[in-house]
């Protein structure tokens, strides 16, 4: 598996168009791999996420193969300087052991299923409390705990945005929520599985990618 980061130029028109439509950005990410490359393998799948601040726009990609971002560089980067780098993710994954603590970020699509008039429908969690509940309910699946020594929740929602965009002739609506905080590893194998395959719905639309960083 590989982890890549590419900085996009927020002043470029193409960058703004890609950011406005996760379907277009998903297609651009997949076009970074040759036709023979599979989006999903036994090792993991292609996942991506946008981290945006006032100063920068960063595209993160986890993938089974090394991407080639020349086309994105031409359309949405800087013409004079390569703005991406890729590294082998394996060493980081192998260092994960039970009991370690990490800072984390996850952009996800927290949803739940309700029954209305006998029909099951998927609905987004809209409040921070319900969104955090969605995350903590998945501690076992994630192989991680978001509960501190004093019983406090060590995660917060830092962004929640309703995204509406077109996929061919269909309108797609998702609730994109970013969680930040710290976690403790409870099952290293399960956590590695999520890091390589993502979690939740809308993984093709910039959701599901969990990243870790050393605790400061």
Automatic annotation (TrEMBL):
Domain of life: Bacteria
Cross-referenced Gene3D superfamilies: Crispr-associated protein, domain 1, Crispr-associated protein, domain 2
Pfam family, one: CRISPR_assoc
Classification via CDD domains: Cas6_I-E (cd09727)
InterPro entries linked to this entry: CRISPR-assoc_prot_Cse3
SMART domains for the chain: CRISPR_assoc
NCBIfam families associated with the record: casE_Cse3
Full protein name: CRISPR-associated Cse3 family protein
Organism: Corynebacterium deserti GIMN1.010
């Amino acid at each position: 598996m590989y982890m890549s980061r590419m900085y996009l130029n927020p002043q470029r028109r193409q960058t703004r168009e890609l950011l406005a439509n996760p379907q277009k950005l998903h297609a651009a990410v997949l076009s970074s791999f040759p036709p023979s490359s599979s989006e999903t393998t036994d090792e993991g799948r292609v996942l991506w996420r946008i981290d945006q601040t006032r100063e920068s726009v960063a595209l993160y990609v986890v993938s089974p193969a090394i991407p080639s971002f020349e086309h994105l560089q031409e359309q949405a980067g800087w013409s004079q300087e390569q703005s991406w780098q890729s590294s082998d993710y394996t060493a980081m994954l192998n260092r994960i052991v039970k009991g370690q603590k990490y800072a984390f970020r996850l952009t996800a699509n927290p949803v739940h299923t309700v029954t209305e008039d006998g029909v099951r429908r998927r609905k987004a969690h809209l409040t921070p409390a319900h969104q955090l509940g969605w995350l903590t309910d998945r501690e076992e699946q994630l192989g991680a705990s978001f509960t501190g020594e004093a019983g406090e929740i060590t995660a917060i929602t830092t962004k929640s945005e309703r995204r509406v965009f077109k996929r061919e002739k269909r309108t797609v609506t998702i609730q994109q929520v970013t969680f930040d905080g710290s976690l403790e590893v409870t099952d290293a194998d399960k956590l590695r599985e999520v890091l390589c395959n993502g979690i939740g719905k809308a993984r093709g639309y910039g959701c599901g990618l969990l990243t870790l960083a050393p605790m400061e």
